[in-house]
Design a protein that fits this description.
By secondary structure, the chain is mostly helical. Helix content is 59%, strand content 6%. One of its GO terms (biological process) is tryptophanyl-tRNA aminoacylation.
């Protein structure tokens, strides 16, 4: 068995904001003390949608790594590296593409969704279609069995599991595995055996998940099978045998969506962000300019906090006592909107203060950052080479 290992990454497409901190980086800081973690600058992934303006990628890489360090990611506990500096990512994606059905890529949850959201871009490219397979290669290259995601992202991990299962089935079978499995099929009877074969073919050739579930149910209901034969047929169905690439499991995490300056999810595309390392004056100005409850047109008008975007930030940054003061003061017009915003300003600045302090040495000497990443890339390549040695051997390819 392989050790528990976590892989996660971010695309360098611009400055990080507090939404990234609350949604991803705080979780990374916790995970690095619990698991072996690799955190990746996913610059090849950035090319899939930003190939027409690579300048934003190049200038964002080092800023993003500094933001990670500022947030508390510790290079002594985690490996920080750049995807494109580990060419084995591309090699494994190529090799996995030999066995991955096209339909698996076309049904990826993010494919049609991104096509619609980014309709202004030309995404009719192999790189964009193959994005989920490159993501699978990223995870499998380090035999990362844990991938931190929110519940809405779990389907994105499924293709990685399917690819690993198929690879192990094709290249990792035990000696005599197929013969033993075929003998077990005969034991379940002609009609059921034929049905099992058909469902197995539909799943492995076409990626038909419904066929997979139907075959599993068929095996569960079949009585005249020994435990060994039953497990063998489950393996034959899904890709049993020697496990060369472990199946990734989603590591469900709470990823709170930090509200932006307009009350929507904080996002660069909405123009409602506060950057991770933004000046105190700019932070104060942005929050003071936030819209409030429309009912409070005048200072003497009463309001309702639930209608106010500022209240959502109070729920993140203000103490219970301050929140109570806001509710009472807003509903009674006892406080004005500028007064109400001040605790949020104070809370954001207090959160950012240690980030500025941690970032300062790296801003003064960028070679420190580049040294951390260079070391991380070497550690990542060592792990990648170990995996590729096994992958190449299994596929009958020589290893340099």
């Amino acid at each position: 068995m392989f050790p528990d290992r976590v892989l996660s990454g971010m695309r360098p497409t611009g400055k990080l904001h507090l939404g990234h901190y609350h949604g991803v980086l705080k979780n990374w800081v916790q995970l690095q003390s619990e698991y072996q973690c690799l955190f990746m600058v996913a610059d090849w992934h950035a090319l899939t949608t930003n190939y027409d303006d690579v300048s934003v990628i190049e200038k964002s890489v080092w800023d993003m790594v500094i933001d990670w360090l500022a947030a508390g990611v510790d290079p002594a506990q985690a490996t920080l590296f750049i995807q494109s500096r580990v060419p084995e990512h591309a090699e494994l994606q190529l090799l996995l593409s030999m066995i991955t059905p096209l339909s698996w890529l076309e049904r990826a949850p993010s494919y049609k969704d991104q096509i619609e959201k980014l309709s202004h871009k030309d995404l009719d490219t192999f790189g964009f279609l193959g994005y989920p397979l490159l993501q699978a290669a990223d995870i499998l290259l380090y035999r990362s069995n844990l991938v931190p995601v929110g519940e809405d992202q779990v389907p994105h991990i499924e293709i990685t599991r399917d690819v690993a299962r198929r690879f192990n089935h094709v290249f990792g079978k035990e000696v005599g595995f197929a013969e033993k499995a075929e003998a077990a099929i005969k034991k379940i009877g002609g009609k059921k055996g034929k049905l099992y074969d058909g469902l197995r073919t539909r799943y492995q050739q076409d990626g038909d998940v419904e066929a997979l579930e139907a075959a599993r149910s068929l095996l569960q209901e079949t009585q005249n099978l020994s435990h060994g034969d039953r497990e063998r047929l489950f393996g034959y169905l899904e890709g049993g045998g020697k496990m060369i690439l472990p199946e990734a499991q989603p590591l469900l995490t709470e990823a709170p969506r930090l509200p932006g300056l307009d009350g929507q999810k904080m996002s660069k595309s909405y123009g409602n962000t506060i950057n991770l390392r933004e000046s105190a004056d700019t932070v104060a100005k942005k929050i003071r300019q936030m819209p409030t409850d429309p009912a409070r047109a005048r200072r003497t008008d009463t309001g309702e906090p639930e209608r106010c975007p500022v209240w959502k930030l109070h729920q993140v940054y203000s103490s219970p006592e301050a929140q109570k003061w806001v509710v009472e003061g807003c509903k009674s017009a006892g406080i004005g909107c500028l007064e109400c915003k001040q605790p949020v300003i104070d809370g954001v600045l207090a959160e950012q203060k240690p980030m500025f302090e941690r970032a300062q040495p790296y801003l003064e000497d960028l070679t420190l950052v580049k040294s951390i990443v260079a070391d991380g890339c070497e550690r990542a390549r060592d792990l990648a080479r170990d995996t590729m040695r096994d992958v190449r051997e299994a596929m009958g390819l020589s290893y340099y």
